[in-house]
Amino acid sequence: MKLVFVGTGAGATFGSKRVKSSIYLKSDDGTSILLDLGTGANFKIEDWNLLDFSSIFVTHLHIDHVSGIFDHLVQRKVLRMPEIEIYSPPGFNQLLESYKQTGNNISAIVKESKLPKAKIKDIEIYSVEACHSIYAVSYVITDGEKKILYTGDTSEPCESILYEAKDANLIIHEGSCVNDCKQYGHTSIGEIMNLFEPKKVIITHIPSQIENQVKEIAKGYILAYDGMILDV
């Protein structure tokens, strides 16, 4: 499976060095999906010609994980592209309808569930509940050989995520602060280092203003950046 880290930022985005959360995944059979589509990431998928995905999987409804979707839906209308499927925890359809009711000509096939899941050709995607400040899920993606865990936003330790992490080949984990950000439903770099071995973790969701501190603390860990490509 091929991964493109489209948006790896969180919090403030000084200089737009990191746009907000989004990951493009393409399987060996050519199936492409997106995991989240936050602020600014919609521009990147267009600039980098990553428009062949058929589905978006949303972890939760905070703005930095979904706001790029609505602008992207406009582009799909302009380019006369087919409707995409959006898998999301409950509430996304309400957001979409609010845009439509205020005059925006956008549409999508929305599939809401407490625990979204799908089978798309050779890729199986399922979710477990995360431990965030609002209801959120983490996604597991497998092609039958490799297993990827994408946490979205969560506070560790989160038992459902730790269970899935045991046999994951790759864990893409948020790292929203240096010390303690549990009150906001996030995980610190120190907590990641205490829970996970460096060899199978990529840290994302990094606020630009703490990037240098994170690099200094998390030596040995891979820090995602916008445009990073990885084969799993």
From TrEMBL:
Name of the molecule in the record: MBL fold metallo-hydrolase
MF-aspect GO terms: 3'-tRNA processing endoribonuclease activity
Species of provenance: Sulfurisphaera javensis
Transmembrane segments: none
InterPro entries referenced in this protein's UniProt entry, alphabetically: Metallo-B-lactamas (IPR001279), RibonucZ/Hydroxyglut_hydro (IPR036866)
Domain spans labelled Metallo-beta-lactamase: 20-205
PANTHER family: ZINC PHOSPHODIESTERASE ELAC PROTEIN 1
Secretion signal, residue range per the UniProt entry: none
A Pfam family hit: Anti-Pycsar_Apyc1
